[in-house]
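Hi R.,

Here's the chain you asked about this morning:
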Amino acid sequence: MKKIQENLKIIGNAELIRYTQDPEQVIALAAKLCYSEDSPDELQQKIACSDTAKFITMLKKMGHLSTFEHASFTFSITSVSRALLAQITRHRIASFSVRSQRYVSESQFEYVIPPSIMDLGEKAVEKFKVQMAQMAVWYSEWQEALGGKCESSNEDARFVLPNACQTNMLVTMNARELLHFLALRCCYRAQWEIRDIAWQMLAELKKVAPNVFNGAGPGCVSGICPEGSKTCGRAKEIREKIENENRR
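And the predicted structure, written out as tokens:
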């Protein structure tokens, strides 16, 4: 049981590992190409010598976001729960590669423990750990009954694994979809784990495409909260958070 207890994870991690080279210039090129008689090569030279910040801001205000689809960003997302996986894959304009529970044995699986359970105290946390250890035992028993640690046994033994079971994935989205994703998942009404990942992603994106993702985040950052009567009531706090991060 001790080994299983040590496999506890609380907060996942999102790291930007690949992205379109010069994403803001690519977006600017795509937009200018629509209205210019110049060749793509000529436009590239002009864009390389100009400040794209104002142009990117104008495109966002105009809602000319199809050009943002030319810039893509790939994240390594690690130590997150299968519960998060179920949520993030609802964003269909994206590509996902996830560690398989069919090909990878989970006999000593790591798991995520919700902060709300942590807040209940040591006894609650210990109870949760014991439950995770029991599920690991059940999983191993079914593996053995179904033929050992192999693909054919893993695929059905995994049915007893919890949503808390930790996984790793690569996620690729274009800039337009990321703006949509961040608007929904940075919101304080979003589930805590995916919200934490979304804020990590936003911080990474601002480093490489600051003008594209300036003002990104929950809807209340740039206007009235879109949640209506279900608002969290923290719009002022969230705007201040964004402003403070922009000053860093």
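The first strand starts at residue 8 and ends at 9.

Let me know if you need anything else.
M.
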